[in-house]
Design brief:
The chain has 290 residues and is α/β, with parallel strands linked by helices. The protein contains twelve helices and eight strands. The chain folds into two domains: 6-161, 3-Layer(aba) Sandwich (Rossmann fold); 169-285, Orthogonal Bundle (N-(1-d-carboxylethyl)-l-norvaline Dehydrogenase, domain 2), CATH 1.10.1040.10. Strand 4 (62-65), helix 4 (70-77) and strand 5 (89-92) form a beta-alpha-beta unit. It is 49% helix and 14% strand. It has an eight-stranded mixed sheet with strand order 3-2-1-4-5-6-7-8, with helices on both faces. It binds NADPH dihydro-nicotinamide-adenine-dinucleotide phosphate. The site of NADPH dihydro-nicotinamide-adenine-dinucleotide phosphate has 22 residues, from helix 1 and helix 4.
């Protein structure tokens, strides 16, 4: 089958990688971006730069959108003739909150088009690699109809009909990613205060950031509401997080992040979980701090 035409709106690092992947696979690619010069290298490779948003929308049934957030979608397409979107499948890969993804889906539906929301779980370097993953949600039929084209970008996993679901799963990924990565930056800053480099702590970091065994161990327990303190106790964790905080403070390094972690563990102890597992923090975190 001939590769289907695709339009890519939004040419940040992600959108450029996506347009490039479609070109590599022989798809006719139309691109459109607020700053047109970002299309230059793609045009050299055979992409067509649309003269305006309407032209971009009319060039393909499948419209891949990769913008900073959903506001950018309204900024770019809010002014176009609503009929220009009619019948299109808009693959919305801009990350934002689940509510904003649902609002965008309704906005798209009002214009006679269908939104598939996507959460891309890879940086631009992983675009074009079938081993990378994008989680999709929205109408299954639209996903099935365009699956082969979407698989040019990454592996494609449809998780459900709710247009907010892919955004939620993306944010679940990010809350873990940013929090763990911040811990890594914190460790490098602390190491640096002691004359150690990122290279010096590389083997330690690789081990510390691999939390797989904890995930596997705690998953069934947490789902069963079992926060038994047989292998770890929150009181021990609270003491440990205080040691981290003091080590960081003694080194003259910023303490905001370890102070927040130590405060969280202290709240758990105050809530009566001292003898429970640190997994009992799931209960503490389940509601806003007083
Ligand atoms: P960028 O934030 O760099 O995307 C910028 C794009 O959004 C550009 O096309 C920019 O236009 C456009 N844009 C932003 N604000 C507006 C606006 N108000 N009006 C019109 N256009 C606007 O992000 P990336 O390319 O890195 O990523 C795109 C999406 O993919 C983001 O939502 C990101 O969270 C998500 N993502 C990114 C990953 C990554 O590693 N980069 C990984 C996984 C997901 P202009 O060029 O004119 O500035």
């Amino acid at each position: 089958t001939t590769p289907a035409p695709v339009t890519v709106i939004g040419l940040g690092p992600m959108g450029r990688a996506m347009a490039g992947a479609f070109l590599d696979r022989g798809h006719p690619v139309t691109v459109w971006n607020r700053t047109p010069s970002r299309a230059d290298a793609l045009v050299e490779r055979g992409a067509r730069l649309a003269a305006g948003a309407e032209e971009a929308l009319s060039a393909a049934e499948l419209i891949v959108v990769s913008l900073t957030d959903q506001e950018a979608l309204y900024a770019l397409l809010g002014g176009v003739d609503p009929a220009a979107l009619k019948g299109r499948v808009l693959v919305n890969l801009s990350s934002d909150t689940p509510d904003r993804a649902r609002e965008a889906a309704a906005w798209v539906a009002e214009r006679g088009a269908t939104q598939l929301t996507g959460g891309v779980l890879t940086p631009p370097s992983g675009i074009g690699d079938p081993a990378s993953t994008t989680l999709y949600s929205g109408p299954r039929a639209a996903f099935d109809a365009h699956r082969a084209t979407l698989e040019v970008l990454t592996g494609a996993d449809h998780r459900g009909e709710d247009p907010g679901l892919a955004a939620l799963l993306y944010q679940l990924n990010m809350v873990m990613f940013w929090t763990a990565l911040s811990g890594y930056w914190q460790a490098i800053a602390l190491a640096g205060a002691h004359g150690l480099t990122a290279s010096d702590i590389r083997p330690l970091a690789v081990e510390a950031l691999d939390l797989r065994q904890f995930v596997e161990f705690y998953t069934p327990r947490v789902d069963a509401g079992d926060h038994r303190g047989d292998v770890d106790r929150l009181a021990m964790g609270a003491a440990s997080t205080e040691h981290v905080l003091h080590t960081v403070a003694d080194a003259g390094v910023d303490t905001a992040l370890p102070a927040a972690v130590a405060a969280l563990f202290r709240r758990g102890v105050e809530a009566g979980h001292a003898a429970d597992s640190s997994s009992s923090l799931v209960e503490v975190l389940g509601k806003p701090a007083a």
